[in-house]
């Protein structure tokens, strides 16, 4: 199933390219046009790049969600479900392909960050630990997206569901510190799972805005989301057309 999804890349290279370029455009826009770094001490680029890496892991789910709903709409899923395979194999194959593209996106955005002057001060082990936290967060968000795609059922409904990701992304500390926000808004931002991941990643990278102790929260939040949404998605997939 993963090979099937990767074969789609060769037939739709523009879609893959757009997925890689979009976060780079956001980074350049907030770094040079919009970003002000309210409440940030130190180099804003060192604060912004880890936040953008976390934001990228929350965005871009619509590609996988659309693919799932299109397969449902065309009846492809029904043929797969009639084959002798595990119930969740179709979904896991789709998720694996998405994780590979997410890793490529992280690599591209990291290279652009280095070109902008961002530097890692936490060492090699901490660097790869931060990448692991980012991919874990993506994996959790991905299964939320897959579950919502199965609930929506139609490609035209995915855009409406995808809008739910924007509050998660922008009600976070990706661009500014919670201390610079009104008290109630700062509290919401502080508890946002993406903010926990961004703070932990900044700490591991050794840049401004990082706080020790957030690594455990950055692990606990995605695992909690996976415990809920992974079985929900597999169960809903298994109940299709019953």
TrEMBL record:
Topology with respect to the bilayer: Multi-pass membrane protein
Pfam families the record matches: ABC2_membrane
Positions of the ABC transmembrane type-2 domain: 14-240
Top-level division of the source organism's lineage: Bacteria
InterPro entries, A to Z: ABC2_TM, ABC2_TM_bact-type, ABC_2_transport, Nod_factor_ABC_transporter
TM segment ranges: 12-35, 47-69, 103-120, 126-150, 215-234
Main location group: membrane
Keywords of the record: Antibiotic resistance, Cell membrane, Membrane, Transmembrane, Transmembrane helix, Transport
Compartments where located: Cell membrane; Membrane
PANTHER family: NODULATION PROTEIN J
Family of this protein: Belongs to the ABC-2 integral membrane protein family.
Protein name, per record: Transport permease protein
Organism of origin: Streptomyces chiangmaiensis
């Amino acid at each position: 199933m993963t090979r099937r999804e990767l074969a789609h890349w060769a037939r739709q290279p523009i879609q893959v390219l757009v997925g890689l370029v979009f976060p780079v455009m956001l980074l350049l826009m907030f770094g040079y046009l919009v970003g002000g770094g309210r409440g940030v001490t130190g180099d804003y680029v060192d604060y912004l790049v880890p936040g953008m890496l976390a934001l990228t892991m929350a965005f871009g789910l619509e590609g996988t969600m659309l693919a799932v709903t299109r397969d449902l709409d065309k009846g492809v899923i029904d043929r797969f479900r009639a084959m002798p395979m595990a119930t969740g194999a179709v979904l896991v194959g789709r998720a694996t392909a998405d994780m590979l593209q997410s890793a490529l996106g992280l690599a591209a955005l990291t290279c652009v960050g280095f070109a902008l002057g961002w530097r890692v001060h936490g060492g090699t082990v901490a660097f790869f630990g931060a990448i692991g936290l980012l991919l874990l967060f993506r994996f959790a968000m991905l299964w939320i997206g897959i579950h919502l795609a199965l609930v929506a059922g139609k490609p035209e409904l995915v855009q409406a569901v995808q809008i739910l990701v924007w509050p998660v992304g922008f009600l976070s500390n990706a661009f500014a510190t919670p201390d610079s926000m009104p008290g109630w808004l700062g509290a919401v931002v502080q508890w946002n799972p993406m903010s926990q991941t961004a703070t932990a990643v900044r700490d591991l990278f050794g840049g401004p805005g990082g706080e020790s102790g957030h690594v455990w929260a950055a692990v606990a939040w995605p695992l909690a989301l996976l415990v809920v949404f992974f079985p929900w998605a597999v169960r809903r997939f298994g109940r299709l057309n019953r």
